[in-house]
Design brief:
With about 260 residues, this protein is an alpha/beta fold. The protein contains 9 helices and 10 strands. Strands 1, 2, 3, 4, 5, 6, 7, 8, 9 and 10 form a 10-stranded mixed beta sheet that branches. A hairpin with a 5-residue loop joins β8 and β9 (about 240). The two termini are about 25 Å apart. The mean pLDDT is about 95. The structure holds S-adenosylmethionine.
Length: about 260
Amino acid sequence: MNIIDAVKDKQVWNSDEVIRTYASVANLQKPEQAILNALRNHLPNWRMLDLGVGGGRTTVHFEPIVYEYHGTDYAERMVEACLQRFPSAGPRTRFFVLDATDMSGIPNQYYDFILFSFNGIDCIGPNDREKVFREVQRVCKPGGYFAFSSHNLLYLPKMYRLKWYRRWRELLYQFYRIAMLTYYNGLPGKYADKKFAVLRDGVEHFSLSIYYIQPEYQVWQLQRLGFRNVRVFSYKTGQEIDHSRLNTLNADAWVYYLCEV
Ligand SMILES: C[S@@+](CC[C@H](N)C(=O)[O-])C[C@H]1O[C@@H](n2cnc3c(N)ncnc32)[C@H](O)[C@@H]1O
């Protein structure tokens, strides 16, 4: 990503409209709930780093049960929104600005659990994505856990399908959406042989470039980097997906990964 795009992206996350949206939601996604359930017994003893915390949607669920909670975002105004939203958070809770690609202010092996929820990692371009994984490995304790979600490239053809809506405004929007997808990215067949791609998918009115990856390739990449016991969870159902099914996984717009560091 060039420097102009990087500055523009951060402006989007720091904008009033986006902050209002993210600071007003509290629902946990199904795979996040599955991951919370899987780790629940350990969380009261764990130090947690919430990367790209946005307006604190995940804070609502994790902060009250972990030993120490650090909610962080590279967008300064997201951090301010969290400070306003959680004025009476516990004594071991902090919110601060942190870029996931450079966590140099954090000591080695500090956290037990690191979360980068709701595809925050996909805001980071392909050249810097590996930096995030390397930083996670550095600041997480060996045997700790890392969970994140990422857009599924296998879902792309479904995004070009016209969904039928009764209201004409919604139907018109569908035409607009498909026209814009084609304008920015071309047709989905172009990506059939790709392992990953950077796309304008409509997020924040087509203003952001978003990383998409084939789940099987993401798992391979994590294993290559040394992450262990990589588990994959469906966004739609929250169920764990067997690795043998990953290359047919075309109904989930994104999936969650849980792995050991
Ligand atoms: C889709 S929002 C998700 C917000 C929140 N995690 C949630 O689930 O509601 C992505 C978040 O990632 C943050 N982000 C993007 N790039 C980042 C980076 N390099 N380091 C830290 N946060 C980043 C954005 O500022 C934004 O708050």
